[in-house]
Amino acid sequence: MQSSSLLFPVALISAERRGDLSEDVYRLKPANSPDISVELVVTRLGMADDSQVRGVPVILLHGSFSNRRFWYSPKGVGLGAYLARAGFDVWLAEMRGHGLSSRNVSWSKNRVADYARYDLPAIAAFVREQSGQVPRWIGHSQGAISLAAALGGKYLSEMDVASAAFFGCQINRRYWSLKIPPVQWGAYLLLRRFAQLSGTRLKRGPEDEPVSIALETLRWNGFMGRFKDAERDWWAGLAEVQVPALVVA
After folding, report:
1. pTM, whole model, 2 decimals?
2. Which of 189, 220, 231, 236 is most buried, judging by how many CB atoms fall within 10 Å of its CB?
3. First and final CA of the chain: distance in angstroms?
4. Euclidean distance between CA atoms 227 and 221, whole angstroms
5. Distance CA 170, CA 249 (A)
6. Kind of pairing, strands 208-210 and 163-167?
7. Residue 181, C-beta contacts closer than 8 angstroms, at least 6 positions apart
């Protein structure tokens, strides 16, 4: 099957009309991370009767325990549908193991650091290729955290992000109890008992999250913790980012 991209293998897995909207679903296999089994699905929304007319591209990133349906319901309701009807070229990304994106081999070890370093740059490159424009980004919760990490870590640049909007992005919220080493150790030992966290059981959403995401967050909030990974200080890097930003807390 011919790829829909010159960057890496991309398959158009569905192209449907949903009422007044068109819905094109692509599966990306960027093979740019140590786990080459990673597949990312992005859904492109537009107006069905004006499928050749595309406006400014906007990428929407869902939060934890969630998927593209946070932005776009099966009945065509949500911010994604609203923006498409307003004339924007809307792209709904689904992170590794969420929604239509299958679980990768190392799903249990997935981290925000992986989303920021590998997945978001691949999505940005594909959207730029398809739209011919630099996209705008909107992130909610963990999606916003991943976007902040990608910008602070310089995995995304001004060539990838025309502007960024952050909603409920908890990178500078402090959980002071976790700064107490015994509390942090106890939380760590408790979380280590689980392989994953169930969104339905916790009443947080329809998806599961690998416990590695929670452990990563615990490290950021622990004693001497900081918003970074082993290679780059994302918090310090954010001070150098030169893109227009809207931050809603």
Report:
1. 0.93
2. 220
3. 45
4. 8
5. 8
6. unpaired
7. 222, 223
